[in-house]
Write a structure and sequence with these properties.
The chain is 46% helix and 12% strand. The chain is of the alpha/beta class and 924 residues long. The structure holds iron/sulfur cluster. Iron/sulfur cluster binds next to helix 15 and helix 18.
């Protein structure tokens, strides 16, 4: 039965004809619904043939195409229509999710879906007539432009949409401008009283709810980081391990908000996953219940590459994009007008929208390659990135992520806005975030990017990218030395790899000194690699030990070429600096901002080139014990993607301690697994506290959950390693026993795909949909939304799902891990293992990963579920990864299936073979 909000809606719906059939394909079958209400089951070939003849309404065309095995399938995608009618609104991209978003009844079987799609399409089209349609502005112009691009929905939309009486304002004039605010004065010195902290906590937790002792203790401990710092370079640092369910978010928000208001300062809260970032936004609303106040006090910050660049969008709308990519650009423009913050990744742009457009160019709409021209941009005053950066100066709470914290610190960005009080939640991820941020890679892909940044587009390149000389033309004409430096840099950049470099290397015909170095690297890697990855088509690598003569000679030439580039870039940086400190008449506010922007991106490039030169020095000289260096060929399914030399810090927390921790006044690093299965020494090493002169203080609180009653770990002992059929069979049996609600974690994409291929159809026929990362053409965030929304669905995935899924309640009741997550035995791991205690180091990593995976299962006091490990070889020493008191049994698959089917009962508890002793030092 259809539900409508009003008689008017119903009438509008009845008046909206739609003369197209609908197509639905799942793993259980394929159905076509005709306009007269008939539904037919059809085969793949017939469905593809009919879709080629007549446009059909479908939901998520790429997914339907994949189910049909017909990649070129196209039609009237309901999701695209939804994105047009309701830009910036959330909807789970399934029939049930659409029904919820539109306020109509969902289909109850696959067979009902085609008719449902037609009803949903008519409902959406009927909205175009509704007088209270909030997203009307801009729709007419967008529909006209989309019609010129032959978007299949455009005629149906224009048939209903009334032409506005006045011409519509175009997007770029509708967006609000940000305002420059005066610099913030340094925070006042305040001391937080214990009573005030507890009162603030009680008010955040809410009138009727009781605060728990663990949470009160946590808030008190967290308040200590806001005490006045005793000595420069010695922040008050607290390491706090707080078990799941303690309520640590409110625990630290209480003293943080109190301090921010009293001191008139800003507290930066950094997370690793988007799930926690979203949760923090929700929790912070308790501090500022009034929405306007909340908006001015709490700011979410992400890396620039997350935000829509308006100039790139304008370019795309005006012919920079063609075909389907241009259609996407118009739908993104619809969204931009209604978006809260312009965040394209994890913000209010539906994560599924870009995935509907293959080879979509959505990344070209963000500022990924540093082509921002700052104040030289006509949209500078409306730019989402600039607005977010300005609001964070005035905010009391900035919610950021570890990657942004590292990149801002490493590249000296936002100097005036440098965080002084920092809370790192999910602190166990700090090491990995630092590891990738402080990595250096002298590879073909990296060097060609630099070439394009200096020289600009070459050959048939499209887009608005400009080289240095075009970006700084006014500088060159005003300052002779600066102009000469630009020209010298342009000439030197010609030594860098250009288009087609991979092909030239494969043919043995490298061009220029850097390509010759890469060719020598490639030959040495092929000669020495012992990872046996050659046949699998995966990456190859070899240590940079005793390099052969060809690599040594080529490295020396490459270093000379890079020096020739670094010199003029450095001179140019100096000229720009001189210009800003003694400005010429023409350097008005906007020109100055542009020059300062150029200085920032220039200094980052100079640092990169200098880092490459020092890496090359290692190729011809002695080892630097601070770093691990190796040579690698990156491959994907047998195709070479990149080649070069890599460098990582042996301990990446060293630079973090110097440039993030030491300049700050107070730092809290917290997580449910901060000690990562080790001791406090491990937590100190993983957070950088080890490198501080003033020792960090420690706090721990155990989880209030009753793991003995809420969870059970089953180690299945009769699945033979390497038996793909048995592995898939085990997954199918467990998912069936559980009735869905399963998160399946894999350590290899290959095994995930083979398991999915073997069981997805079978499960779908039983009404148990299966989704998978790396298989379904859907982004990970949307997959989790779909999984959360359907208690019968199951989801398979790899690393990102081990720590990024927050699904409390019935939707997640069984976690399956296909095997022990052994660390990848690569060169970098070997070096760190050698330094950090051999097998103990491995065990800590494995325990941490198992604890994170287990942590997905029990998210609230009402959650119950099983954790199944499909591996007989689980040493008992690793079982401390699970919370104290969690029952663990070694069982056959049949027993595991029986347990999952029965659910948790007191009798089952009696059958424990092993029960972990209550270990107070494990505060899970
Ligand atoms: S200021 Fe930079 S990032 Fe912002 S819209 Fe303009 S070019 Fe894009």
């Amino acid at each position: 039965m259809l539900l409508f909000r009003s008689k008017y809606d119903y009438q509008m719906f009845m008046d909206t004809p739609l003369a197209f059939p609908a197509l639905h394909a799942s793993h259980a079958g394929i159905w076509v619904g005709s306009i007269d209400g008939q539904v037919q089951t059809v085969g793949k070939g017939e469905a593809a043939g009919r879709a080629a003849e007549t446009p059909m309404v479908m939901l998520n065309a790429p997914l339907v195409a994949q189910r049909l095995g017909y990649p070129d399938l196209s039609g009237l995608d309901l999701l695209e229509l939804f994105a047009f009618v309701y830009p910036a609104r959330f909807a789970v991209p399934t029939p049930k999710g659409m029904a919820k978003a539109l306020g109509i009844a969902p289909p109850t079987t696959d067979q009902e879906v085609p008719q449902f799609l037609l009803v949903a399409a008519r409902t959406l089209l009927a909205v175009l007539d509704a007088p209270d349609w909030a997203e009307r502005e801009g729709a007419w112009d967008a529909a006209q432009a989309l019609m010129r691009l032959r978007w299949p929905w455009s005629n149906l939309i224009l048939a209903r949409l009334k032409k506005p009486e006045k011409p519509e304002r175009w997007l770029f004039s509708r967006l609000p401008e940000w305002e420059e605010a005066p610099p913030r004065t340094p925070p006042r010195v305040v001391t937080l009283g214990a009573e005030a902290v507890q009162q603030q906590l009680a008010s955040l937790v809410g009138g009727s709810a009781e605060t728990r002792q663990g949470q009160r203790d946590f808030a008190q401990a967290a308040a200590e980081i806001f005490a006045p710092r005793a000595r420069k370079g010695e922040p008050n640092m607290l390491l706090a391990e707080a078990g799941t369910g303690i309520g640590k978010t409110l625990g630290y928000l209480a003293p943080a908000s109190l301090w921010a208001t009293a001191a008139d300062g800003t507290v930066w809260i950094s997370t690793f996953t988007k799930a926690l970032q979203r949760q923090l936004v929700r929790e912070a609303q308790r501090i500022y219940p009034d929405y306007e106040t909340f908006k001015s006090k709490v700011v979410v910050r992400k890396g620039r590459e997350n935000y829509l660049c308006l100039l790139n969008l304008e370019d795309a709308l005006q012919g920079g994009f063609a075909g389907r990519a241009a259609i996407l650009a118009h739908l993104v423009a619809r969204w931009a007008a209604y978006s809260n913050d312009g965040d394209m990744i994890g913000g209010d742009l539906p994560g599924w929208l870009p995935t509907l457009f293959r080879r979509n160019g959505s990344t070209a709409l963000t500022d990924r390659r540093g082509e921002c021209i700052y104040a030289g941009c006509p949209h500078y005053k409306k730019c989402f990135i600039e607005r977010a950066s300005r609001s964070s100066v005035q905010a009391e709470i900035v919610i950021a992520n570890h990657a942004l914290m590292m990149v801002n610190a490493a590249r000296g960005r936002d100097e005036l806005n440098r965080p002084s009080r920092i809370i790192f939640d999910e602190g166990h991820h700090l090491f990995d975030a630092a590891d990738s941020m402080f990595a250096a890679a002298l590879t073909g892909q990296e060097t060609i990017e630099l070439r394009r940044w200096v020289i600009g587009p070459e050959g048939k390149a499209r887009g608005r990218r400009r080289g240095l000389s075009a970006r700084l033309a006014d500088v060159a004409s005003y300052d002779e030395e600066g102009g000469l430096a630009i020209e010298m840099a342009r000439m030197a950049a010609e030594a860098l790899p250009g288009d087609g470099w991979l092909g030239r290397l494969a043919e043995g015909a490298p061009s220029g000194p850097i390509e010759r170095f890469l060719a020598a690297v490639r030959a040495m890697v092929f000669a020495r690699d012992e990872t046996n990855a050659t046949e699998g088509g995966y990456g190859l690598e070899t240590e940079l030990a005793d390099p052969d003569a060809a690599v040594v000679d080529a490295a020396a030439d490459a270093a000379v070429a890079l020096e020739a580039l670094a010199r003029p870039l450095t001179v140019l940086g100096q000229r720009l600096e001189a210009m800003v400190s003694d400005p010429p008449d023409w350097l008005d506010g906007s020109a100055r901002a542009r020059v300062e922007g150029a200085m920032a991106s220039l200094s980052w490039r100079i640092d990169t080139v200098r880092a490459w030169i020092s890496m090359l020095a290692r190729a011809v000289g002695p080892v630097d014990s601070e770093f691990v260096d190796w040579l690698a060929i990156d491959r994907f399914e047998g195709r070479e993607m990149d080649i070069g030399m890599h460098r990582r810090w042996l301990d990446p927390m060293k630079p973090v301690a110097d440039i993030v921790l030491k300049p700050s006044h107070g730092v809290l690093a917290t997580s449910a697994t901060l000690r990562s299965g080790g001791d406090w020494k491990n937590a100190e090493a993983r957070t950088g506290a080890l490198h501080l002169d003033k020792p960090a203080t420690h706090f721990s609180a155990i989880s209030p959950f009753d793991y003995t009653a809420q969870a059970e770990v089953l180690i299945v002992t009769d699945i033979k390693k390497g038996d793909a059929a048995a592995l898939a069979g085990a997954y199918a049996a467990l998912i069936t026993a559980s009735g869905g609600g399963v998160l399946g974690l894999f350590t290899a994409i290959r095994r995930l795909r083979s398991t999915y291929a073997r069981i997805a159809d079978r499960l779908a026929r039983d009404g148990l949909p299966l989704y998978a990362q790396h298989v379904d053409p859907i982004d990970t965030g949307t997959l989790v939304d779909i999984f959360r929304d359907d208690p019968h669905a199951s989801l398979l995935g790899t690393d990102a799902l081990r720590d990024g899924v927050d699904v409390p309640g019935h939707s997640l009741r069984l976690v399956i891990m296909e095997q022990i997550p052994w660390p990848r035995p690569d060169i970098l791991h070997r070096a760190r293992r050698l330094k950090n205690g051999g097998i103990d180091f491995d065990d800590r990593i494995i325990r941490a990963k198992m604890a994170q995976a287990f942590g997905r299962l029990i998210r609230s006091a009402d959650d119950k579920g099983h954790f199944v490990l499909l591996s007989s070889a689980v040493p008992s020493r690793l079982l401390t990864a699970f919370p104290p008191g969690t029952p663990v049994r070694r069982v056959t698959l049949a027993e595991a299936v029986a347990s999952v089917k029965t659910g948790l009962s007191p009798d089952e508890k009696l059958r424990q073979d092993i029960k972990i002793s209550l270990d107070e030092s494990n505060p899970f």
